[in-house]
Amino acid sequence: MAENNKKLNIFQRIAKGFKGVIGELKKVTWPTKEKLKNTSAVVFVIIIFFAIYLTIIGEGGRWVLEKVGFYNQVETTATTAVTESSAAAATTAATEAAVETSEAA
């Protein structure tokens, strides 16, 4: 109790921390070699299962989206007013380009 009241320097605190870690590691129940192999095998099987499962889901989703045409590029037409103004602007730009070309020549 008296030790807790004293202010420890940095090295004493680090040493105390390491002693606490070592004390906790002594309390750990370590698995046997056989149990470690078995649990590792279970983990690997689960990882492989989910890797295959997620690949199937991803590829299946991609296939469905391709079949419904999700990835196809679709050109949309704007309203008539916008199309007419765009056509008029394009005609004006073409006319101006033609005038500039004929002036340059």
Question: What descriptive keywords fit this protein?
Answer:
105 residues; mainly alpha
Description:
- By secondary structure, the protein is an all-alpha fold.
- Helix content is 78%, strand content 0%.
- The protein has four helices and no strands.
- The chain has helices at residues 2-5, 10-27, 33-67, 80-104.
Order of helices and strands: HHHH
User: Into which percentage range does the β-strand content fall?
Assistant: under 5%
First-last Cα distance: 102 Å
Uncertain spans, ≥5 residues at pLDDT below 50? none
Please give the count of helices.
Answer: 4
Helix and strand arrangement:
Blueprint: H1 2-5, H2 10-27, H3 33-67, H4 80-104
Brief summary of the model shown:
With 105 residues, the chain is mostly helical. The protein is built from four helices and no strands. The radius of gyration is 37 Å and the shape is elongated.
